[in-house]
Write a structure and sequence with these properties.
Radius of gyration: 21 Å
Number of strands: 12
Helix content: 25-40%
CATH superfamily of the largest domain: ATPase, nucleotide binding domain
Order of helices and strands: EEEEEHEEHHEHHHEEEHHHHHEHH
Number of helices: 13
CATH class of the largest domain: Alpha Beta
Number of domains: 2
Structural class: alpha+beta
Length: 337
């Protein structure tokens, strides 16, 4: 069995080819330098790296797929950011599914055009009959009860798709399944809180095998403090900045998504490793950034546990969650009860 997986975004395309006994990965970095892309292929034996001129992103993707796959795969999986209200499970990609991805592009305008570009490239290289599957980042959260999904704003907006969707669903689902296997128990019998902590951060409360609550919302901006994203702030603060400090919608977008979080508080970096090093050297803003990160993480874990009515396991994953024993220890220090 040969399975090709693609994770397409505005700044990069990550690829992996899984066979019965091997894995090969690839990356196209569109931000390397203007008019060029950094393309790499890596296997257990070697890594090939090239810088290529970009006149057409589609041409670069097609060449990359041909280099990665010496023969056609048996199927292709695409990570798609937003399924909107249309999808609560992975689905075979058809014309109707592509139309839905176009329709939901308003929810993820940076990512969805890249997803469609990757789908089209696969069709061009391997033919339209090759099975392609869309795995939606929001799908794992799509069964959240209305009490968790709806915002306390006029109800008609909920019917128009203004609701909490949640993200990182593929990660939350995978680590929950792995935890159940590790514990030797049925996933449906466990109450889990999964902590996806990287440059983007989110939690999920998982019961009976599904997410019943999560920290991200209509966009990935909500919830926890993140690398450059603010997480939850008082909506009235945003109105104040619009009215009194001359901000626009675009400048608020930049402030909340790119200039806040660990970077905004520390003034150093969005990388927790650099912040911890600066804090150890006595930098008070770096220490404050770390303390805020842990405080908000603990607080939101408490909310997830309350949604579950108890907890059987707490799971950490992604760059920070997997690699920082300090974050895990400091988070759990307040959860002994």
């Amino acid at each position: 069995m040969r399975i090709l997986v693609l994770n397409a975004g505005s700044s990069s395309l990550k690829t992996a080819l899984f066979t019965d006994n091997a894995q090969q990965t690839g990356l196209i970095d569109w931000t390397y330098q203007a008019g060029h892309a950094h393309v790499s292929l890596q296997s257990d034996a070697e890594e090939n790296v090239a810088v290529v001129a970009v006149t057409s992103r589609g041409d670069v993707i097609r060449s990359h797929l041909q280099a990665l796959c010496q023969q056609a795969p048996d199927g292709v999986g695409h990570r798609i950011v937003h399924g909107g209200m249309d999808y609560c499970d992975s689905v075979r990609i058809t014309a109707a599914v592509k139309a839905a991805i176009v329709r939901n592009a308003a929810f993820a305008p940076v990512h969805h055009p890249a997803h469609l570009e990757a789908i089209a490239a696969v069709e061009d290289v391997f033919g339209q009959e090759l099975p392609q599957v869309a795995v939606f980042d929001t799908a794992f959260h799509a069964r959240m009860p209305a009490a968790a999904a709806a915002y306390p704003i006029p109800y008609h907006l909920y019917g128009e798709g203004v609701r909490r969707y949640g993200f990182h669903g593929t990660s939350h689902r995978y680590v929950a399944e792995q935890a159940a296997a590790f514990l030797g128990q049925s996933l449906a019998a466990l109450r889990l809180v999964t902590c996806h902590l990287g440059n983007g951060c989110s939690l999920a409360a998982i019961a009976q095998g599904y997410s019943i609550d999560t920290t991200m919302g209509f966009t990935p901006l909500a919830g926890l403090m993140m690398g450059t994203r603010s997480g939850d702030v008082d909506p009235g603060l945003l109105l104040f900045l619009l009215r009194e400090r001359g901000h626009t919608g675009e400048s608020l977008d930049r402030l909340l998504n790119r200039e806040s979080g660990l970077l905004g508080i520390s003034g150093i970096s969005n990388d927790l490793r650099q912040i911890l090093a600066a804090a150890a050297a006595g930098n008070q803003r770096a220490q404050l950034a770390y303390d805020m990160f842990i405080h908000r993480l603990r607080s939101h874990i408490g909310a997830m546990v309350a949604s579950l009515g108890g907890l059987d396991a707490l799971i950490f994953t992604a760059g920070i969650g997997e690699n920082s024993s300090k974050v895990r220890a400091d988070t759990c220090a307040a959860l002994g009860f």
